[in-house]
Amino acid sequence: MLIDTHTHVNFRAFREDADEVVRRALDAGIWMINAGTKFETSRAAVEMAESYSDGVYAAVALHPIHLYEHHVDISEEEPGFHTDGEEFDFDSYKDLVMRSTKVVGIGEFGLDYYRLPKDKDQDELKQKQKAVMIQHIDLAKSVAKPLMIHCRPTEGTMDAYEDVMKILDEYYNSPEFEMHCFTGDAPTALEFVKRGGLVALNGIITFDKSGRSMDVVKNLPLESIILETDAPYLTPLPYRGKRNEPSYVRFVAEKLAEMKGIDVSEVEETTTANARKLYKI
């Protein structure tokens, strides 16, 4: 059994075959958490989770890139898309959580300094992201759900990760969080582990040639790792270039086992236990 702790079958990329994709994963012994990125996709994640008896769960939140309207270039799978500006409505998101027991986390939310609109005041945008991140933490506390944190720093820096740590230290004295799609360095990963958090690895580890993923994997204990796909993005080898899906999390598990020099069954058992403990599933 494996758990894809972060996927987006609730996105339009799966509008034609979502049920087929979900069934393919469930038949392979793979559970999933669909993450919302704004109210519309958060609601879709909850509705999808409710339509399956087991194995499909939801997380709800407002992604930092949806705090303002702008064009975002995406190198993974798509040439780009236009984001809608949305104000975070605490009560609306709380209502989504309270209406379903299948909502297991608050996410994905956090800080994204990599895709800030160049025509707007950068410091002002960062401050807004931080303020909304704190609101999400307040929401998580009020409904007793763990955090699914998105963090993408300015290229060549760890700035957003450093700011996330400061916010966690001041506003969230709990180990119940994960760093989704971690792309930082090993020392940064260990700082989050020191705070009790989990580090989520995905298809990037199957094609990263920089050596950073290997360094992170070598330094992190398996007990601090969970797996994800971030589908439809970041498709692992051998399907790089095609649409990603939850069933492909198996390739992430196999690569992690290879990198650590252990049997894939150990990766499956430990990462699944880690995810089940964090998300109480």
Automatic annotation (TrEMBL):
An example Gene Ontology molecular-function term: DNA nuclease activity
UniProt source species: Candidatus Doudnabacteria bacterium RIFCSPHIGHO2_01_FULL_49_9
Binding-site positions, a divalent metal cation 1: 6, 8, 108, 230
Key words of the record: Hydrolase, Metal-binding
InterPro entries linked to this entry: DNase_TatD-rel_CS, Metal_Hydrolase, TatD-like, TatD/YcfH-like
NCBIfam families: YchF/TatD family DNA exonuclease
Gene3D superfamilies according to UniProt: Metal-dependent hydrolases
Binding-site positions, a divalent metal cation 2: 150, 180
CDD domains: TatD_DNAse
The protein's name: Hydrolase TatD
